[in-house]
Specification:
This protein is α+β, with helices and mostly antiparallel strands and 766 residues long. The protein has 31 helices and eight strands. Belongs to the adaptor complexes large subunit family.
């Protein structure tokens, strides 16, 4: 017995009554079979009913593509009931990716030419929903004619269709310029709102349209003044604000027309002042209008008094209980800091209170207010917040303090004190380059060596859990420990330190379970450096010999087969002398020389030299990074016999929106089959690149080992680059190819790039 087809209402009830997913699928499969059979039979009277049921099935997520051609048949039907369902089906089942949507172009053109407003409305709705560029070119003339039809129903839909056409085909701007000037005189709310939107789209996409519509700025000003002062239509008022949607749209258009145009900006100055002072802020609708007013004042050449008024409005927004309003106020203040810094400074206490917000807008706004005149006070506020802020905010806050101190530090001593306080408070949350920057700073301030080593020794004696602080302290004690033992420093309180106390403290660091391998390397290097400068080093030697079983610390003399050869034959070698002062920058020849020296010294002990920021010549492993469990001491003896490897030219393999990826190559002479590639990521844009991950692949004939990167954040404005070492073993000397995949977040977007590097220099594999 054949089950009859269900009506739409019965189908809905039966689907809703299904208790399981399987029952629902069974009902839908049976009904779809009836719908297919009806389409094959070509029943014209019930086709629209069958398609209506199919559209409901499509809305539930089930396939309904077999109804596309039935939509075309219903659209071509002369009956309005068929057209209504046919156009609805076309909007739901068709899109630009399918060629079938082009088949309805003639039907839409015929329906637009009819005088029936209901049919014209259906055709316009469909065109504005699924209209492709080809359809827009073919039907632009018909839509332009409907813009001036007497009926407001059709004109409103025609304006919205014109907006869609301009977005699809900006070249159609000239067709819609003349009607827009007439439509601005409309009193109908929907038509006027659509016209303002259409003019906005035209001005954003066509310089000629922008120049043309600057003539209507006085008319737009008058429309907005009428809305503000007398009210345009009470039926469109929201919470006492007259037609806020229309006000917002007009303000956006005025912002575009007044940008970089003095005359237009002067015309709207008085109006913007009226809107800013007469809008009720007790409701969200009024806040929306005020916010658009502030944006218009900021983007146009408005008077200085108006800009101060805009900043004061944002200051009131900061006091609002709504977090969304506070957020938009903070982001807007960030844009005004450069042009109206003094006006924004008045709201600094309010911005400080916003530091405790979970989003980062308050921190960015606070940091943007820092300058050379207030850096001490602002940094102190940030440090006070850092001591009590939640753990998830400490990393961003610490990074902000370090950046502000580096940019606006009044003195070197203040800069050193600021970094020390950050390391003491949130050492585990600082950026990867904090240790390198501080050692660089201390090394360059010769007059503060005694002060720095005493401060660091005192901080280390109190707490050895903050690993970056321990690393800097150990480095400083190793370099300037003799100044610590002398006890002569006019800038600090008298502190008498004995050599045994220093060695005991370094021994405590070595034995602490909290010490990372890199930290132990710093401490052991400091012990050996101290031993070379004093006549009696047995205590230091005993500390080092407490690690005889560690493969990181064992040494082997050339040609020796014994594993117990002591390392202390080299304690008085030149390699353990004080590191020379390294200046940032310099000529290319000096950088090349320093790069060669760095390769030798880094192959030996943990380098106590502060790394130099040099994107073109990456320094391999950075100081203080826990992700480098590489041997610190096994290569000490070999550094005396190393030959400088042949230079291979660097290669830039990627560049996008300020992010650059460079490759530098080293082939150790003693292992010709081994290639060391240092991947260096440099960011010259104005925003940090976060969550940076670089992955690589090589041909099957090669073996690849990826070392841990120096970090996952590439700082903006050419900050310290992120480096990663690739070890490629190519025993067959086959031509080398490299496939890289980069994933990162930049400018609010998640980016993934996959590319192949086929132009590696021949020196890398031959």
């Amino acid at each position: 017995m054949v089950v009859p087809s269900l009506k739409l209402q019965d189908l809905i009830e039966e689907i809703r009554g299904a208790k399981t997913q399987a029952q629902e699928r069974e009902v839908i499969q049976k009904e779809c079979a009836h719908i297919r059979a009806s389409f094959r039979d070509g029943d014209p009277l019930h086709r629209h009913r069958q398609l209506a049921k199919l559209l409901y099935v499509h809305m539930l997520g089930y396939p309904a593509h077999f109804g596309q051609m039935e939509c075309l048949k219903l659209i071509a039907s002369p009956r309005f009931t068929d057209k209504r369902v046919g156009y609805l089906g076309a909007m739901l089942l068709l899109d630009e990716r399918q060629d079938a949507h082009l088949l309805i172009t003639n039907s839409i053109k015929n329906d637009l030419s009819q005088g029936i407003q209901a049919v014209q409305g259906l055709a316009l709705c469909t065109l504005s929903t699924v209209g492709s560029a080809e359809m827009c070119w073919d039907l632009a003339t018909e839509v332009e004619k409907l813009l001036l039809q007497p009926g407001s129903y059709v004109r409103k839909k025609a304006v919205l269709t014109a907006v869609h056409m301009i977005r699809k085909v900006p070249e159609l701007s000239n067709i819609f310029l003349p009607p827009c000037a007439q439509l601005l005189h409309e009193r109908h709310h929907g038509i006027l709102l659509g016209t303002i939107t259409l003019i906005t789209e035209l001005c954003e996409r066509s310089p000629a349209a922008l120049k043309h519509f600057r003539k209507v700025v006085p008319q737009l000003v008058q429309i907005l003044r009428t809305l503000v002062m007398t009210g345009y239509s009470t039926e469109h008022s929201i919470s006492g604000v007259s037609d806020p949607f229309l006000q917002v749209q007009i303000l956006r258009l005025l912002r575009i027309l007044g940008r970089n145009h003095e005359e237009s900006s002067e015309t709207m100055n008085d109006l913007l002042a009226q809107v800013a002072t007469n809008t009720d802020t007790s409701r969200n609708a009024g806040n929306a209008v005020l916010f658009e007013t502030v944006l218009t004042i900021m983007d146009t050449r408005s008077a200085a008094g108006l800009r101060v008024l805009a900043v004061n409005i944002l200051g009131r927004f900061l006091l609002n209980n709504d977090k969304n309003i506070r957020y938009v106020a903070l982001t807007s203040l960030l844009r005004m800091v450069q042009s109206d810094h003094s006006a924004v400074q008045r709201h600094r206490p309010t911005v400080v209170e916003c530091l405790r917000e979970p989003d980062k807008a308050g921190q960015r706004a606070h940091l943007a207010l820092v300058n050379s005149s207030n850096v001490r006070a602002m940094t102190q506020e940030l440090q006070s917040f850092l001591e009590s802020c939640p753990p998830d905010l400490r990393a961003d806050c610490a990074s902000g303090i370090l950046l502000a101190a580096e940019r606006f530090a009044p003195t070197k001593r203040w800069h050193i004190d600021t970094i020390l306080r950050v390391l003491t408070t949130a050492g585990t949350h600082v950026r990867d380059d904090a240790v390198a920057n501080l050692t660089q700073l201390i090394g360059g301030a010769q007059e503060l060596h005694a002060y720095s080593v005493r401060r660091l020794y005192s901080a280390l004696a109190e707490d050895i859990s903050q690993q970056p602080l321990v690393q800097v302290a150990a480095w400083c004690i190793g370099e300037y420990g003799d100044l610590l033992l002398e006890g002569s420093c006019e800038e600090t309180e008298p502190l008498q330190v004995k050599e045994e106390e220093v060695l005991a403290l370094l021994e405590k660091v070595l034995q602490s379970h909290m010490s990372l391998p890199a930290t132990r390397g710093y401490a052991l290097t400091a012990l050996m450096k101290l031993s070379t400068r004093h006549s009696d080093p047995p205590c230091a030697q005993g500390s080092a010999r407490s690690y005889p079983s560690s493969h990181r610390l064992l040494m082997k003399s050339p040609g020796s087969t014994q594993r117990d050869t002591p390392i202390f034959h080299l304690l008085r070698a030149a390699i353990l002398e004080k590191m020379p002062l390294v200046e940032r920058g310099g000529t290319q020849d000096e950088e090349a020389k320093e790069s060669k020296e760095a390769q030798l010294s880094e192959a030996a002990l943990v380098s106590t030299e502060p790394p130099v920021r040099r994107p073109e010549a990456p320094r391999g492993r950075g100081l203080g990074r826990a992700s480098t469990p590489t041997c610190y001491l096994p290569h000490t003896l070999s550094c005396f016999s190393l030959h400088t490897p042949a230079s291979v030219p660097n290669l830039r393999v990627f560049e996008r929106e300020g992010l650059q990826l460079n490759l530098s190559f080293v082939r150790p002479p003693e292992t010709p089959a081994l290639l060391l590639i240092t991947v260096t990521a440099v960011n010259t844009s104005g925003a940090d690149v976060t969550h940076f991950v670089c992955q690589a692949a090589v041909p099957k004939s090669c073996q690849l080992q990826l070392q841990a990167p120096s970090g996952d954040t590439v700082p903006a404005q050419g900050g310290l680059p992120v480096t990663q070492l690739l070890r490629i073993f190519n025993p067959n000397k086959a031509p080398l190819r490299l496939k890289l995949r980069l994933t990162y977040h930049h400018l609010g977007q998640s980016v993934q790039e996959i590319f192949e590097v086929n132009n590696l220099p021949a020196e890398t594999w031959q």
